[in-house]
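Exam revision sheet. Question 4 asks you to relate a sequence to its structure. Input first:
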Amino acid sequence: MLNFDFNLQIISHQKPLSLQSIMGINIGIPRGTRDFGPLESARRNFILKTIECQFHKYGFLPLQTPAMENLDTLIGKYGEEGDQLLFKILNSGLHEQKNKDVILEKFKLSLEKHLHASEITDKALRYDLTVPFARYVSMHRQELPMPFRRYQIQPVWRADRPQKGRYREFYQCDADIIGTPSLLSEWELIRLADDVFGALKIPAELRWNHRKLLQAIADFASCTDRFSEFTLCLDKWDKSGKEGVSEEMKKRNFQEKQIRDILSCIEQLNGFFASDFHNVPYFIPSSPSGDITKNEISFIYALYKNFPLKHIRLVPDFTLARGLNYYTGFIFEAKALQGDFQPSILGGGRYDDLTGIFGQPGLSGVGISFGLDRIYDVMENLQLFPEQLKTTRYAFCLGLNMGEQSIGYMFDFIHKLRESGVPAFQFPENKKISKQFEYADKCGIPYAAIAGEEEIRQQSIQLKNLNNKEQKNLPVDEALNILKHEYFQHGKN
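Answer key, structure tokens:
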């Protein structure tokens, strides 16, 4: 996939565009990105605040990392396909090179062979939040309490093919616990997912698998040395099914017997758990990886049995692979259970030595990531947003502009509303009252405050409810109290 634009570095050195040429430009945004208007932004903020509230409840601390990382930090961490989806950034100053043909030839070669040509690019936009987190922990190990609990809510970028539910720029909401191998961390994150989806009222199931179980299957099928390829093929099961996985493995020259053994083992495991998934899976192939898996599954299901989840189902799925190279233990993925659009809305898992590649070995961690954009799509599909988020509202009260003599009086009233926590503003121009009411209606504002010469003389406010059209002339303090009461009792978003 080509995700460079060589001309990016030299376009700023062309002559400024004329007004005529600007008028001829087809205005738009890059594929896979979106604008968010006021209503969409309010709904997204509702989701973010809900998730962040749960992060705080579980004792996670906030963290932010740069939008771009050194390419060496990211390359090789996401598997064969992930590396190709990195948005690489051209080095600055390439336009100053005397021999541009040589640079361009190297650039084309790096694309064709997926080479890391440092003279062309040495940075990339972050692909996820987990690898930058591991890099941060490695750089600040001595300053951090271990285990370290962090949450991070930031955008990530992938040069993927845009489609419904799949974007090139999207937000992840991550929570990670690093510095302990304890399976209580997995259980904490399972409970966190239960509380988040409960708070958002999304009916969901949390599917799980174990990478060591998949390793045991690879050992059983005599393809231990091709584990990464095997998981990459298996990760396509959800979209293309058993036959699609089989065809993908054939393309990669897996032996017929290996394919039969793998698919048979996975189908039998899924069948075993379908009948009684609370038991320890003794069917798992016996091997060091298999034995570890049995013990860890037994531990989690003992907790699950004694402390049932309230809002989501915990479901085994041995076709789940999470094709990222850094996962080593439990892996998770959540999907909505209702609606005609059911994408993955959460992913995550255990990584035993991700920090080791940055010089800090032995720091096992586990994390989950909520996908803001897909959660939004699911909630919109299921109409789960609260009533006050079904329309756009810019403020709770609009102060009408009745001319210069009333501007100061109305400004003082609006200021007092804001001081008490009620969002309000004054219309900037002395237009017809009907036009100002029309504006308030378009902005979803439920109340209008009016003050002409008579109201100023009486020290009062004409307060109009724009929903039921009731209008009263009230003393200023009474109008303030009514608006405060209505806002905090009924109208606050």
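Marking note for examiners. The chain has 17 helices and 16 strands.
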